[in-house]
């Protein structure tokens, strides 16, 4: 079962959300996780939670850092039960705790031992035994917030907010002018703090806006209308972008139940060999 939790008001400028997935799976089950324009720390807190992501094997009682992604991440379970908890930072949120160029970690998943320390191994063991792991994580982040004296990157945070408000349909030159930076300096600074170029980040925001528009009552007959609303050239352009970022075609989103939350975190793909068809379920 998948759940999301909001951060406290003190951490909201830096943390987008906490999320948790706990439940039975089956060996070989595959999850496609689309990019959100953020970075995540992920904790394996069960004793049978082996997952594989690209060349990374996520072992029990370990934490992992997933940097900015510009395509979907494929996660394959190796056990029949998983319990993973994630902390999703705002695009510039991690800089309040660690000053690193996020562009160095594009499309990478790393064991936390290979990444500047934020959560110690002893904390992860403590987390596994805690009855309120989300509260435990939040308490640790608040402690580090007061411990660290690093400032907040206000210029880029402001631009990120503008891109979100305009649903990714923006002029990069106008954004640079907004924060009084030359284009080259703006792009370099944006990439340092978010990991993305302004154009890449805008494309991800635009993709999520398109997903929100692809409601179950939409049909293939009016995909062009959705594409134009979301700022794409045509339906083919929409198709390519959705496929690139999610690993699925727009059809997968059209079959969501009417009351289903559109802001999905992951896709669960279960292949069933029956008359050469592949059945997909989206959570």
UniProtKB/TrEMBL annotation:
GO terms for molecular function: DNA-binding transcription factor activity; sequence-specific DNA binding. It comes from the Bacteria. SMART domains: HTH_ARAC (SM00342). Keywords: DNA-binding, Transcription, Transcription regulation. Pfam families: DUF6597, HTH_18. Residues 153-256 form the HTH araC/xylS-type domain. This is AraC family transcriptional regulator.
């Amino acid at each position: 079962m998948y759940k999301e939790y909001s951060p406290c008001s003190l951490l909201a400028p830096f943390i987008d959300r906490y999320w948790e997935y706990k439940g039975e799976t089956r060996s070989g089950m595959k999850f496609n996780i689309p990019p959100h324009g953020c970075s995540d720390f992920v904790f394996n807190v069960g004793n049978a939670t082996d997952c594989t992501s690209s060349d990374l094997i996520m072992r029990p009682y370990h934490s992992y850092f997933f940097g900015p992604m510009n395509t979907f991440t494929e996660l394959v379970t190796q056990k029949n039960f998983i319990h993973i908890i994630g902390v999703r930072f705002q695009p510039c949120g991690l800089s309040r705790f660690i000053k690193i160029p996020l562009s160095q970690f594009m499309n990478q998943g790393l064991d936390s031992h290979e990444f500047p320390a934020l959560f110690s191994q002893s904390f992860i063991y403590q987390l596994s035994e805690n009855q309120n792991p989300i509260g435990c994580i939040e308490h640790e982040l608040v402690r580090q917030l007061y411990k660290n004296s690093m400032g907040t990157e206000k210029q880029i945070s402001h631009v990120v907010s503008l891109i979100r408000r305009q649903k990714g349909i923006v002029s990069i030159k106008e954004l640079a002018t907004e924060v009084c930076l030359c284009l080259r300096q703006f792009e370099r600074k944006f990439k340092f703090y978010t990991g993305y170029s302004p154009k890449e980040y805008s494309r991800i925001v635009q993709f999520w806006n398109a997903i929100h528009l692809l409601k179950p009552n939409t049909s293939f007959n009016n995909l062009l209308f959705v594409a134009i609303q979301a700022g794409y050239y045509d339906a083919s352009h929409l198709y390519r972008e959705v496929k690139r970022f999610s690993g699925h075609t727009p059809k997968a989103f059209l079959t969501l139940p009417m009351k289903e939350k559109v802001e999905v975190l992951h896709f669960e793909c279960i292949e069933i060999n029956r008359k050469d068809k592949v059945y997909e379920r989206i959570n």
